[in-house]
Every structure is written in structure tokens, then in C-alpha cells.
């Protein structure tokens, strides 16, 4: 859990605080970047940039506001900026998946299912699904990060689930 | 594929790629401060999952018990007894309004008997008439029952019935997941997300209850698609219960209305005020029985297509003997013009016998974490 003490430690450039905050926030940060890039490699690269920027901007963080939302908003903006600037989003097609190096825990068919799902969703749906399912973020917080009404977020979440369930080859 | 399976695949894949070590950042870390207290996030273990499930079930059972115990059929006063009844009425009334969105998005519709000669007053009145009809014929409130959902993707099912002027019953089902955000001993704030099923028609819906400055706000939305939806907002003040509606089409607000329900002199009185672009109007509904026939009488004052018109309307309902269709029979009596009759055919309230396509699916494994309950 991120508390004031950790954030104060971060402001003092304390490495232990940095590591603790990384482990608390890595799922959300990874999810939101991946929803833009759709590439694990590009996401890992950008993870480094996000945490670098977090340290550079930590003095501008306003205490007693939601730190996680602040960081995820920063991660989302950085991923989008990167996408616009470099135009190098790795569009990994389903056919290219053989070239990927999935981790040992992930069976190939699970990887295929994951890629099918990810590519079937639009960017906003991916963000909502990943933040909700991977980071267990509240819809209320997702709506703040994406700056959309909570109703829209709930609607998009349900739509995304419908899109995934309509996909063939998942069963 | 069930939601929990989707979640499992997403979570496993993403977590297997997240770098386990924090990135090495070329900062001059202050090594002198090692008193940072790292509080580990508690794992959502089975006991917590069970406790969460039980809590939510208790809330639902509480709703149900209150609903059953709170309705007194002998009491003549109409008043929504609980959130479930408000949500149910919100659902049926927003559904009526969805039918006004034009043929491209029209799902549930009033089919005018003469499409080329559609009566402008009736076309504006109709969705609200159907809402008023459901209030007038529901005695002391809508009969709502909440049970476990029969669909795999949802936790709960709210079943409710409405009656028309012929006392025929229409059944609605709302399957939803409840997301409890805040709860204390006396009251709770929550969101729900699900689908509303009427016959073979299915609509995405969301609902939200918020408490701000001791005022309860209950909002409900029913969607045709992401940009075309109807939003309702319920509030109660003194003896007046009010629903406000906003209709959005392609993301644009196209009409607003207020639907007030008052109980006065042992009678239910309903007033509707609407604006839709340059059109506006006020309708006052009254329910009477004449010669054992149920009738709704309406006083109206409207400006539609730049024509100001006021007067009275009498509405009866009958069955078309040729095909069994329900027909609303209007006698429109404008103040400064001759009266005329108009018929409109209704296909919204026909119960469909076919089951929803997902109904055969097995229910979710009860031991699994409820999809959206972690947030309380």
C-alpha cells in the first residue's frame, strides 16, 4: 500500500521507497502502457521511462491526492506521446506470434488467446480491461485516469467482454 | 468463455512479462534512510472472498426482505418502497424512451398504424403514456423479485412485472453485477452494470446510487449503443417523486423531460414536462375507470413544430380482433379545433416465449471470486 511515508521517501530519492512503489504500481503501469503499444518489448522499454519520469516529477506530485492515478495518468500520456512521436508501435499480428518469446508459464494456446483478445479490442477497451483485470483497479479510478464518465467506462467494459466472448477459437 | 477465464488469461500473460526488478535508474539514491515502512497489500484470500460474497448476499437479501415486507397491498398510496422499485421503474421508463430514437436505432417501437400520417402529439406523448400506464396499474409499486442470475456473466437477476390498461402483464428481467463501493451500517452507495431483457430484446444498462450531503441520488442508463442512450435521475421531495430524463442520440442531448408522481386526494397524479429542440409540452395524466374499462385522461398544453395546441386526450386500449395486436385508441380534443380519433399499435409489451440465448449456460462456479465485488 502506498502511504505518505513512502512518497516522502521517494521525494528524498530513497531507493527502498522507490522499489516498494515500483512493486505496488508495476501492474497498472505495465497494463496502461501495453494497452497503447500492444507489444511487451515496447512496454518494457517504456516502463523504464515512466519510472524515470516519476522520479523527475515527484516534487510536482501533490500530497494526499491519489498517487496511483497520478502515476498511471503519466504512464498513459507518455505511452501515447511515444506512439505519436516515433510511430513505432509494434503491431504484432497473430501470425507473428511464433517470433515472440512467451514466458515458460504461458502455454502457446494461452498466448494465442491473449493476443486474439488484445487485438480484438480498441485502445480504450484494452486499457479498461487490463486495468480492471490485471491491476484490480476500481471503475471509479479508471474513469478518473481516462477522464471519462464512470457510465462510459462501465459500458466500455461490458462491450469489451462481449467482443472477447464473440471471438472464435477461444474455447 | 466466462469472465473469470478472460481475467485469468489477461492476468497471467501480463504478469509473466512485468519485470520483477525495479528499473535501474541513474539517480543518486539516498542510502541513509532505511526506515521506510513497506505495507504489503493483503492478498485476496478465500476467507476474504467468502466474507465479501456473504456481505453482498446479505445486502441483496436485505433488499428483498425489505421489498416484500414494505409493500402493503391494502394501502392505496403509490410510493416506491425501495431502490429496487425505483430501478425497475427507471428501467421500464427509459426503455419506453429508447423507442423514440428513430428507425435506425429503433429496437422496441410503437408502430404507428398510419406511418405517413403520424400524429405529432401522440408521438411525443406515447413513451410517457406507457410509463404513466405502468404506474397507474401497479397499485402500490412494482412487484420486484431479486434472485441469483440465470446467466453466467451476472450475479443477480431482478424480475419485475408491469400491467397495461387491459391488465395484461409484461415481464422484464434485469441481470446485473453489483459493485459496492461504499457501505456503512445504514446505507450504501453502489453501481450496477448489466442487461435488461424484455422478450427477445436486450439492452445494456448501468445504475448508480450516490449519497451526497445526505441526499440520495439514483441514476440509471439504458443504452442502444455507446452514444445513444437514455439517462434517468430519481429524487423525492415532500410527497412528490420525480424522474428526470435525458435522451442522447449519437452523443447529442436531444430531449429532456421531468416526470412527477404525486399522491393527492387518494389519487395518483402524474405530470410530464418535456423539451425537445423547439418542441415542448406539458401533460397531466389521470387514471379513471368507466364501465369497468380502464382509461387514462390527459390534459395537454404543447408547442410542436411551432404550433401551439392544448386540450384533452382520452386513451383506451383494445385488442385487434384480426391479429391480437394491442391498440391504443386516442380521442384527441383540441381546445380550438374539432376532436379526432387516432390509433397506435404497440408491439413493446408482447411477451416473447423464447429464452435468451445465453440462458442455457451453466452458472458461474460459486467458489470463484465474484466478478465485481472486490471494490467494496
- Average pLDDT metric of chain B: 74
Structural class of chain A: mainly alpha
Beta-strand segment tally of chain A: 0
Order of helices and strands of chain A: HHHHHHHH
Helix content of chain A: 55-70%
**Uncertain stretches of 5 or more adjacent residues of chain B:** 30-51, 61-76, 103-116, 349-376
| Euclidean distance between termini CA atoms of chain A | 37 Å
Give an overview of the whole structure.
The complex is a heterodimer of chains A (171) and B (376). By secondary structure, chain A is mainly α. Chain A has one domain (4-166): RNA polymerase sigma factor, region 2, helix turn helix motif (Rna Polymerase Sigma Factor, Chain: A, Orthogonal Bundle), CATH 1.10.1740. Chain A has eight helices and no strands. Chain A is globular, with a radius of gyration of 17 Å. Chain A starts with a helix and ends in a 5-residue tail after the last helix. Chain B has 376 residues and is of the alpha+beta class. Chain B has a domain at 48-262. Chain B is built from four helices and 16 strands. A 16-stranded antiparallel beta sheet of chain B has the order 1-16-15-14-13-12-11-10-9-8-7-6-5-4-3-2. In chain B, helix 3 (83-98) runs antiparallel to helix 4. Chain B starts with a helix and ends in a 30-residue tail after the last strand. Chains A and B meet through helix 1, helix 2, helix 3, helix 5 and helix 6 of A and helix 1 and strand 6 of B.
Amino acid at each position: 500500500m502506498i502511504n505518505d511515508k513512502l512518497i516522502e521517501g521517494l521525494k528524498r530519492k530513497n531507493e527502498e521507497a522507490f522499489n516498494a512503489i515500483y512493486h505496488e504500481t508495476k501492474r497498472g503501469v505495465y497494463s496502461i502502457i501495453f494497452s497503447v503499444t500492444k507489444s511487451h518489448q515496447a512496454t518494457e522499454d517504456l516502463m523504464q521511462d515512466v519510472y524515470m519520469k516519476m522520479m523527475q516529477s515527484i516534487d510536482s506530485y501533490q500530497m494526499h491526492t491519489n498517487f496511483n492515478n497520478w502515476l498511471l495518468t503519466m504512464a498513459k500520456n507518455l505511452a501515447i506521446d511515444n506512439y505519436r512521436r516515433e510511430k513505432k508501435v509494434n503491431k504484432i499480428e497473430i501470425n507473428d506470434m511464433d517470433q515472440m518469446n512467451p514466458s515458460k508459464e504461458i502455454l502457446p494456446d494461452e498466448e494465442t488467446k491473449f493476443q486474439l483478445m488484445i487485438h480484438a479490442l480498441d485502445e480504450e477497451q484494452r486499457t479498461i480491461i487490463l486495468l480492471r483485470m490485471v491491476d484490480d483497479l476500481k471503475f471509479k479510478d479508471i474513469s478518473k485516469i481516462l477522464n471519462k464518465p464512470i457510465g462510459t467506462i462501465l459500458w466500455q467494459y461490458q462491450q469489451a467482454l462481449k467482443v472477447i466472448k464473440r471471438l472464435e477459437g477461444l474455447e | 468463455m466466462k469472465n473469470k477465464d478472460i481475467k485469468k488469461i489477461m492476468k497471467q500473460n501480463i504478469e509473466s512479462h512485468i519485470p520483477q526488478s525495479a528499473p535501474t535508474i541513474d539517480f543518486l539514491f539516498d542510502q541513509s534512510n532505511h526506515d521506510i515502512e513497506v505495507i504489503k497489500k493483503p492478498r485476496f484470500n478465500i476467507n476474504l472472498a467468502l466474507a465479501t460474497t456473504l456481505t453482498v448476499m446479505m445486502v441483496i437479501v436485505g433488499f428483498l426482505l425489505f421489498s416484500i415486507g414494505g409493500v402493503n397491498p391494502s394501502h392505496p398510496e403509490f410510493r416506491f418502497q425501495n431502490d429496487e422499485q425505483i430501478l425497475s421503474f427507471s428501467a421500464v421508463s427509459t426503455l419506453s424512451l429508447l423507442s423514440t430514437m428513430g428507425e435506425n436505432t429503433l429496437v422496441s417501437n410503437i408502430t404507428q398504424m398510419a406511418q405517413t400520417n403520424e400524429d405529432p402529439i401522440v408521438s411525443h406523448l406515447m413513451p410517457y403514456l406507457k410509463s404513466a400506464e405502468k404506474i397507474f396499474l401497479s397499485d402500490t409499486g412494482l412487484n420486484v423479485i431479486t434472485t441469483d442470475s440465470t446467466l453466467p456473466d451476472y450475479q443477480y437477476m431482478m424480475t419485475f412485472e408491469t400491467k397495461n390498461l387491459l391488465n395484461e402483464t409484461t415481464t422484464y428481467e434485469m441481470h446485473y453485477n453489483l459493485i459496492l463501493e461504499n457501505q456503512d451500517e445504514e446505507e450504501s452507495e453502489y453501481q450496477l452494470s448489466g442487461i435488461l431483457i424484455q422478450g427477445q430484446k436486450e439492452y445494456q444498462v448501468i445504475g448508480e446510487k450516490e449519497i451526497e450531503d445526505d441526499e440520495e441520488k439514483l441514476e440509471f442508463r439504458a443504452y442502444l449503443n455507446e452514444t445513444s442512450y437514455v439517462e434517468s435521475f430519481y429524487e423525492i421531495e415532500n410527497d412528490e417523486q420525480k424522474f428526470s430524463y435525458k435522451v442522447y442520440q449519437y452523443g447529442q442531448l436531444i430531449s429532456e423531460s421531468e416526470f412527477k408522481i404525486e399522491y393527492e386526494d387518494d389519487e395518483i397524479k402524474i405530470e410530464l414536462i418535456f423539451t425537445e429542440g423547439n418542441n415542448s409540452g406539458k401533460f397531466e395524466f389521470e387514471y379513471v375507470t368507466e364501465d369497468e374499462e380502464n382509461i387514462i385522461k390527459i390534459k395537454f398544453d404543447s408547442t410542436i413544430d411551432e404550433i401551439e395546441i392544448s386540450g384533452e386526450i382520452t386513451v383506451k386500449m383494445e385488442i385487434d380482433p384480426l391479429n391480437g395486436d394491442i391498440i391504443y385508441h386516442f380521442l384527441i380534443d383540441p381546445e380550438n379545433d374539432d376532436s379526432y380519433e387516432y390509433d397506435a399499435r404497440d408491439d413493446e409489451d408482447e411477451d416473447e416465449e423464447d429464452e435468451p440465448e445465453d440462458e442455457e449456460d451453466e452458472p458461474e462456479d460459486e467458489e470463484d471470486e465474484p466478478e465485481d465485488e472486490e471494490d467494496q
